[in-house]
Amino acid sequence: MTKAKVAISWNSSCGGCDESIVDLEEKILDIASKVEFVLWPCAMDFKYSDVESLADQEITAALINGGIQNTHQEHIARMLREKSKYVIAFGSCACMGGVPSLANLTNKQEIYNVSYLDSPTVVNPDKIVPLEECSVDGKKLTLPEMYQTLYKLDDIIEVDYYLPGCPPTAEMIADTLGALLSGELPEKGSVLASNKSLCGSCDRNDTKPDNISIKKIIRIHEIEADPDTCFLAQSVMCMGPATRDGCDYPCVRGNMPCTGCLGPVSGADQGAKMIATLGGILEGDDEKGAGVVLDGVVDPAGTFYRYSVSASFLGRKREEDV
Ligand code: SF4
Ligand code: SF4
Ligand code: SF4
Fold first, then answer.
1. How confident is the model at residue 313 (pLDDT cuts 50, 70, 90)?
2. Is 0.90 surpassed by the pTM of this model?
3. Is 98 a pocket residue for ligand 1 (Cβ < 6 Å)?
4. Alpha carbon nearest to ligand 3 atom 4, residue
5. Ordered DSSP codes for 137-151
6. Residues 119 and 261 occupy one common structural domain
7. What range defines the domain where residue 242 resides?
C-alpha cells in the first residue's frame, strides 16, 4: 500500500502542537501505518534538502504550526506549499498568530531588549544580541532576518484548512488526519471545528442567568470557583461566548475559565465580540464606572486577543507608537 506523505513543520511556536500529536497515544501507531512522515523537526531528523528534492504536490498534507516571524520560516512555508497537495494551518499560532502574535503589540528592538538585555535573569555583560551576519575566525555566519510583525500562515501562503486550538486536542487531530486519509474533506478553506460558540455546549450554560450584573471582574485565583456555575455568573472572565466550540471545553471541566484558544467563530473579531458581550452585563453606566468594573482585567489585549492578534482588527500596534 502506498502511504500518504505527511510533513509537520513549526515556525514561531512552542512545540505544544507537536506534543498534542504525541497525545494521540496508541492511535499514532495506526496513523503511522498509513502515512510516511517526510518532515517533523520536533521529533525526527529529516533534512530540508530531502523535502526540497520531492516533486511538487508529492506530499499529501503539510501540517504547519506557528506564525511566520523570520525569513527562514517564510522560506520553509513556501517550500512546503509547493510540495504539498493540502496545507493545514495547524494550531492557533498558524491560524491566528496565537500567543506569539502578542509580539505585534511591540517591536523587534523591544523584544531583543527584554530577551537579551533587560530581563533580571539575563547575564550579558557584552550586550550581544543576535546578528543577521557576523564573522567568526574569518568565517561568515548568518542568521535568518527577524520581522517586525508576526504573520499568520495565510498572510504568507495559501492555506487549505484551519485547525485551531492551543494546541488542537488529540481528538481534533485524529479527526483531521482521518478526514485527510479517507479523502472526506470539507470545502476548501474550512475551519475544522464547530462554527458555534463554546457556551452552547458548555454544561454550565444553564446556570448563566439571562441578566447577569457584574460589579467587578474577579480573577480566578481570588475565589474558590463553584465547579457547577457559569464563570461569568461568578464575575470571573470566561471567553466562552466569543470562542469557537470544538475542544469539548477541557478547561471549564477542570474548573478553569476558557481563555479563548480556539479563536472566534468565522468572520468575528474575538476581542470585539467579548467586549460587546461584557458591555451588556457589566454594571457602571459611564466610562469611570466601567473602568472600575474592568479593573480585574489586568491585561486587556492579552485577555481579549491572547490567541488572535494577527487575525484581529488590531493586527499590530503602529510601529511609531511602540
Ligand atoms: S498553538 Fe499553542 S500549543 Fe500550538 S504552537 Fe502555538 S502556542 Fe504552542
Ligand atoms: S461563559 Fe464560560 S462557563 Fe459560562 S457557559 Fe460560557 S463557556 Fe461555560
Ligand atoms: S475551553 Fe477555551 S481555552 Fe480551553 S481548550 Fe477550549 S477553547 Fe481553549
1. very high
2. yes
3. yes
4. 251
5. TTEEEE-PPEEEEEE
6. no
7. 198-307
